[in-house]
Specification:
Strand content of chain A: 15-25%
Distance between the termini of chain A: 39 Å
Largest sheet of chain A: 5 strands, antiparallel
Largest interface: A-B, 123 and 125 residues
Structural class of chain A: alpha+beta
Radius of gyration of chain A: 21 Å
Helix content of chain A: 25-40%
Number of strands of chain A: 18
Strand order of the largest sheet of chain A: 1-2-3-7-4
Number of helices of chain A: 8
Order of helices and strands of chain A: EEEHEEEEHHHEEHEHEHEEEEEEEH
Oligomer: homotetramer
């Protein structure tokens, strides 16, 4: 990852600030001949879009994506695809206070210290709006994956929100799309809604844990030692705004297990090797096994809350910050489609990398 | 990260297999004029070296590092530094069974599937021996950091080993170096030793959690959006063998917090801004704040255990695997100096990146 | 260089096709605090713009550049700068014949073979219009260089056009800006004009040789062995459309010289080392000496001519191609500002690289 | 190209100084399953090796290459291949004068200025000995190409040496291997030998022009706009020591041609498209056509001559430099196998890149 670019062969460079004229993604290295159009990408953007439900910010951005290059007569040409989203809801306002004050828990102070200046309007480059560009690029990656890995399915969902946790015994893969929380435990839904309302009323916010699964990815994706699939997934998820932890399979809990508990035994199935469990999260030695690839990440609660917090101004004066405006009490909800997009980009990138170095498909046979 | 290379400007490429003639690190982009010699690097390698204590593998490798290039009259010249460690303890043995069998929880099967062949001797490229090269490179990074970030201190330690966890109320920074576990809670030491003996006797292994702290790093390191300091740290740690989770600051626990609990308030101190807490782990918006940079990672228990596990052979036949030989019951112990090395490399890399794009030191002033 | 990106730290990714909605440059890694606005960049674009003189294509594109990101209140912020140029002069026409025919000497056939499809409108991605994005990025690089290398001057000019060559005895640095050919030998101007008219009348085109000089660059830019300044300059120039050769200093003529003729002797001057000659073109061992950096490149004559040439169609049928439309008889003229832009980007990139690895300015002293 | 690394997927990092313990190449990204051994690589190194004929330096280095990693049971494993060449002929000598003096035309002064120190023994990193590592890596690339591009043939030869030029009318592809000059015009051989003896007797040196041809490369290699095949070839050749110019096809002479003269007409042949001429040198729009890929480069005469030249010392004092010792009167001779090695690496790299992004082979059909 190189400042604002990620990916080896499928390279995504995002650009743009929250309140500038536009933001977008410059995608280089996409295979040619992928059928794609603006409506197809818009489908994914609409899932991330604010103002969709009562649980997310009421900032109304159509987030309409335009394809400016790299697509001709409905197919990618192999040249860079420019995906642009214009910022239309730039309410004129007085930024004087924000310009002079550092919001606690925000990038305001670090941007100021590093660069000596910052675009303070709406968080500028550090705004979660940047993730719209990722979702657009992820939509393109999904279109390419449809041809390259036909059985692949990528799905993200919330597993925790503050005090609420899903009951994995009730896990329902098909229920995820049907609710505002992307939650696989629909029985718990009313409780989650009530909880989030209480957080909002308390002028507070809350963190979340998201799990993203890639089902049906072929074995052999990834590479030793620094180009590992899990390394790139960890980087991809940690690069999302507000993410503070990333886990593969057992994740941090692996520290508490013994070798007999943790090892996934291997048996021979009808189609090839099978595993009795998936503590590994589908990755061994940095390379996919063919099992579900399971990534989990934690999103911190947004610091943009109505409860006053102590801070300082650019001249070092103590102050109190209350962040008014349109903010999600749980930004983690909208991180679900972003995590999916990053998974799609990483899987595609590693499919291309594998094909480049090794050739089509796994090279080893078993049985 | 590009297959076997990590870093933007301070670029480390490791090479070599567990039982080949040698392994090492090719380090490109080191600043010139850094005083360094083999003895100085050996200091760090000796900390990681097996056979040091009763808790780690008894494979006796001197792990002697040789500097083959890039250093002249005791100083780096700015050209690539080749750090080579010869493999001396290559016991001749019959590898027939290992060649035909996939150890559960190991990269055996994924390397086989991906590449169609694998160096099965001692794990080949997927062996933890590769981390010796990282530690050598980390030693060089520390030497460079001594000049570039004089007050910087990097320290790793174990915070968990299976059922054992440190009591943070008894945290003692200065006790870490004095015990076999790099453990900051010396009072718990006897209990940890007894526990690990019981794991070993049970022919089992156990996972671990390691925390690495960089104290005294300047603010301003890192960059939006994919070149974030925490993104690169997550990638660096996840690339270490057997690591399954990475956390910055609060890490996964951030999912359970509210905004009022999590935000680090800012106050003006004598030297500049200070923070009342460090939930962020020293990184905001991907850029260092000047606080302690806190990274945590989990190492899974090694699958190389004497307890039989089910697996298959290359021709798909069911078999049982018992991994004899010299293996650590807790590989996490030796991951401590590796985590430190990765921290050193990442911090140096971002210091050079910052200097390249922005110039020396933070550009913004407060107060 | 990575498909559509060049540069190490100052990274320019260009995107867009000749007849798509827009094209542009995504510039990552620009130092913060650089004063820049659209008018300042437009100055450079206007020099490259078609329709400026009777010698260049009459396609009338305003080539107006818009800054979509990375600039706030007149200064760069250190985040990606998106420079977009909308394509306004997309005459509707019948592309049927062009779609089915490969123009000789064009990328039509190789794009078709490689990708299986191509955007045939006006050359698509292979059009010289792509260079407008380079000129915009080069304008940004120049703005950054104004602060980082105050005395630096970058100037390009034609040294040859078909049978016409400049007389170096009459070389006039200050005359370059004053004529349509960027020609440093104004006395030859009438002859060049007559010659080009005859080429045009003959429904033909002609090649050109362009020299670009960077005067006042500090010593120490570049790096062994693959990050050499001259390596990057050669790549930068060879990446420009229609360029077939690149020379540094003596260039290809060095093959004909002896060691006594070629070596630049060193003497001590008032300000430091001086060189009696500059056969090296300002680069020794890949690193700048502080002398003029001299690069020369050859642009082939465009194949878009009115004289019929034999070719084939996509179904393999023999045909004849006559390229009607608005084409320059000497595309080399408009390559001058493009070469300057590439020089600016490479010099800035190496200044940042040097500062990153080594620190500000040369580290060695003489005398 | 990134300081000491070149290549996108087949990445070669060379390391080592002329008079250090060893030098070598770390090759990452090689396809697995490539049959390779030390003897096979040695074949190519022996062609470059000094002391082979009366025309090259009498420094006697066996230049024996060792494979330290990435090869198992005679095949590459897909992990990094470390190729090491130990420096055995390190004559002990007094370097005092060389340490204090800058040789004109050498990198001595620029390394000193840039880094503040340099390994002055035998030129250190800037020595032509570095090219031995390229030739080793090129041997590995050739082994991989044998499987991936079966009909491919890569051959380099001299076309000029000072006043001597080959007569292309007598060009004999099969005669190249049979003489000390890699010269395709054997009739001119006696004259060349006499000329080079006169240069040597005059205590002088002379430049050379080398042409490298890849015959039988598939169409479709390369990519717009900065990952062009010719861009990467130009960079590869310009990165070789002492190279001052690079040409593709017509090269610099394209500046003197008209469009009717330069365009390669296309006709339909039995196997697919054919071209009546090859002015383009096998590359259109940065992508290979399937014709011979033709690269030419000029090597300057070495500045290491016995004729005294004016220079200065590190303290700025005027001095005269006479370079005694073992030096080639025409270093260009030994640049032939180096140019071939670079061609092999670039072709392989682009084959892998193409396979990664687009899939196996050209995607478009004609006829």
């Amino acid at each position: 990852m190189s400042l604002n670019t990620f990916g080896h062969l499928f390279r995504v460079t995002t650009w743009g600030e929250s309140h500038g004229p536009a933001l977008g993604a410059t995608v280089d290295g996409c295979p040619p001949g992928v059928p794609v159009d603006e409506a197809g990408l818009q489908h994914w953007l609409d899932r991330r879009r604010p103002g969709q439900s009562k649980h997310t910010t009421q900032r109304k951005e159509p987030d309409a994506v335009r394809i400016l290059s790299g697509v001709f007569e409905g197919q990618t040409t192999g040249t860079p695809v420019q995906l642009m989203i214009e910022n239309t809801d730039q309410r004129s306002r007085d930024y004087g206070e924000i310009a002079r004050t550092f919001r606690p828990g925000h990038a305001d102070i670090t941007y100021h210290l590093k660069y000596g200046l910052r675009d303070y309007r709406g968080g500028g480059r550090s705004s979660a709006r940047e993730t719209a560009a990722r979702v657009a690029a992820g939509g393109l990656a999904r279109a390419a994956l449809a041809a390259l890995a036909p059985g692949l399915e990528i799905k993200g969902y919330m597993t925790r929100m503050g005090e609420m946790e899903i009951d994995r015994a009730r896990f329902d893969w098909d229920a995820i799309e049907g609710n505002d929380f992307w939650m696989p435990d629909p029985q718990a839904l009313p409780e989650w809604e009530t909880y989030l309302q209480s957080i909002r009323k308390a002028q507070n916010s809350v963190g979340a844990e998201i799990e993203v699964v890639a089902r049906g990815a072929p074995p052999g994706l990834g590479a030793p030692v620094y180009g590992k699939l899990d390394t790139d997934l960890a980087a991809a998820m940690m690069s999302i705004n507000a993410v503070k932890g990333v886990e593969i399979g057992e994740g941090m809990a692996a520290a508490g297990l013994t070798g007999t508990e943790n090892a996934d035994e291997i048996v021979m199935g009808a189609q090839g090797p099978e595993y009795t469990t998936n503590h590994a999260g589908g990755v061994l030695g940095g390379i996919s096994t063919g099992q579900d690839i399971v990534v989990r990440f934690a999103v911190k609660p947004t610091s943009s809350i109505l409860t006053p917090r102590r801070s300082i101004t650019t001249d070092g004066t103590a102050t109190e910050v209350v962040t008014k405006g349109r903010h999600d009490p749980c930004v983690g909800i909208r991180a679900v489609p972003v995590g999916e997009a990053m998974m799609a980009c990483v899987i595609l990138d590693h499919l291309l990398l594998h094909r480049g170095q090794v050739g089509d498909g796994p090279q080893g046979r078993i049985g």
